[in-house]
Amino acid sequence: MRTTPDLTVLTRHWLLKLLSLIIGASLWYFVVGEDRVDLVVTIPLELRNLPADLVIANQYKKEIEVAVSGPRRLIQEMRRQNISLPINLEKATPGALVIKNEPESIALPRGIAVQRVQPANITLLVDRLVHKDLTITPVTKGKPAAGFELQRLTLSPAHIIVTGPQTVVDKEQALSTSTIDLEGADRSSTFQVHLDLNEALLKLLGETVVEANVVIREIMVRKVVRDVPINIKAGDLPTGKLAPATVSVEADIPEQIVHATPELVMLFRASVNAAAKSANNELPVQVHGINLPGHAPIVIVTITPNTVRILP
């Protein structure tokens, strides 16, 4: 006897079966049905835990290129995240350190596969971090104008502490400025000047400037000028009553004035104050040089004699 199929089995628990169908279809869409994307993304390296007394001494590639494959939705979510490749340098020592960029070391969302990593290796040169105080030497060219000379040239600061890899810093004994042109200078000046740095130091210090203070002065010539007449002030003594009536003056005179003055005695004025005579009738002699515009003042070194007597 043929039995009739029980169709109620198909309709029994229909709500649960419908829900299972919807869930299955959704999973199929997200896992199988969603478009898959192949993409190359750039991921930065993140150096961690480098000891304070060490430094990376070479230029290295700070990003890697990673070819990934996965559902479009996951790829888009991944690109919104700050994903990096952490490198732990806690146990680093001076020398060459080769970092292998393994696909499994990159933390990507589940469902995204790493196809390729470029470059596969990165080499870091680890060096000791040192500090060195280097003196800055000014570099000049040319000569000041005729009749002038460089009195001094100072830099501020006069030295700089350089911090960097030991293999770089130990090679340097001093720093120097770019060339300072003194050709034709006839006055003092203060200005900024760049340091002349090699490529390695330029990476450590960047474009560095210091202040240069250039002091230019007239060339002074020491001369002894004899027979400078003495004038009497604040008194009624005749000139002939002084003994001696002239003095010799040793002085530093601008070289240009020496060449332009036929009689150097014209550059000095000697005098005594009659009211200042002492008990033995001696008067101190005062001498000053004539100041000429545009020139340094004359400097009196000695006066001979430095006192004169009033004759009875």
From TrEMBL:
Keywords: Membrane, Transmembrane, Transmembrane helix
Entry-linked Pfam families: YbbR
InterPro entries per the UniProt record, alphabetical: c-di-AMP_regulator, YbbR
Transmembrane regions listed in the UniProt entry: 14-32
Name of the protein: YbbR family protein
Species assigned in the record: Desulfobulbus propionicus (strain ATCC 33891 / DSM 2032 / VKM B-1956 / 1pr3)
